[in-house]
Task: structure prediction
Amino acid sequence: MCSVCGDSDPRLIGLAYNQAAPLHILLRLLQAGPHDVRHALATRTAMPERLVDEIVHHRDRSVRRALSWNLAVGPQVRSRLATDPDLGVRVNLVEHCNYRSQVSTLEPRTPLTVEAYELLATDPERVVREEVALQRYTPAHVRDLLAADPDPAVRLCLIDAWSQLSTAARAALLSDADPQVRQAATQRQAPAAIIESESDLSPWTSKRVILARPLAERLARDGDAGTRARVATEPSLPADLVAELAIDPDPEVRLAVSRRADLTEQQRAAIDYTDDPGRLFHPLEWVTDACGDPEIMRRCATSAHPALRRSAAYCPHLPADLVRTLANDDDFVVRLFLAENHPDPPGELLLRMVLEFEGYSQAKMLHHPNFPRSGLRHYATSPDPRERALATLDPDIPPQAIETLSRDPDLTVRRSAAADARLPTPRLLEMLSHDDTAEAAACNPALPLQTMEDILRR
Result:
């Protein structure tokens, strides 16, 4: 993907991203290019094996770190950094194992190879082993190895992944030689504790505690609305106090109650709450914890409460009928979460969200295999520049239309045309000479080799 960045000649940045640039061009950029050009090379979506070799062994650790963050190149390439001499590279490699920002797929993927996880689990630096213990993609047998790690701080990290531990790993932690590890494991294994005083609540709301009646009453009737809103989410709060908070004068308290898992749709509908789609929203934990439960997913996806539907849309394995329902939801966040997280979103939804939303995941949607490209050429004459920029994605748009778009008054539209291989060469070279479109033109896979060489010489 082309992007305008850095202080270097934008043509060099564009060459670094150009998927048709031959290997010798890429190697020369890596060897002699400025820092932001080398960084661009390490963030390509695809790269020749020789280029990977050179980046993995590059003297500049920031280039290797950039590769460690590049999930697009796949686990085989990234895993080569598991033996990197720089601690920061190895930590980044494990820490950045979140596929949420990548195109969802129907096939399960892991950010690193099994061999890389095994190697990193024996890393000489404790912080690396701690990260391996904390990551949700770490294989079960690697967690078993970490349960015998010589450092108790690493073993303690495994407690946070308790639900993913094997019976053997749990048994090892329950009998751990370190009293802090043993105590933490015992607390996770034990039934929910009854909390009598506020000082014993840490963290505040926990699925592992039951509020004693006097404490629950005191918190539910506290003069601070924030305190009441927090206790309103506590699963163990008695039903009569939930009903009391459901008519609380503060709207934030009523909203918190309306999101509880134990309410019926009728009880939820009776609460006077407002759930603004414009405010920051995090999926409800009790919903995401139940992503694999078809009954709960159906109840949430068909709820009248937008927070439940948004949270269901965040879950990646909804059945097809619920996907269709949520794709047409009136709530913007529901549609956005579905487009970002479901592996098989409807193409119409992806197109709609690209036109409605500007954010980090927009590129993911544009490159999703379900994104509808045929027919986009009719946007070429749209009054909306965001729509005109999409026209170049149509595989059947004629070169003349691309050239027309290359002269569009909107810069984003011109850049999309500049990067299109169907743009006639004379116009491509003309756009290469303009600073505002130079990078996009240098990205163009139809850029003549001689022109690439000329850019390097300049």
Q: What stands out?
A: The mean pLDDT is 90. The first strand starts at residue 193 and ends at 195. The first helix runs from residue 10 to 17.
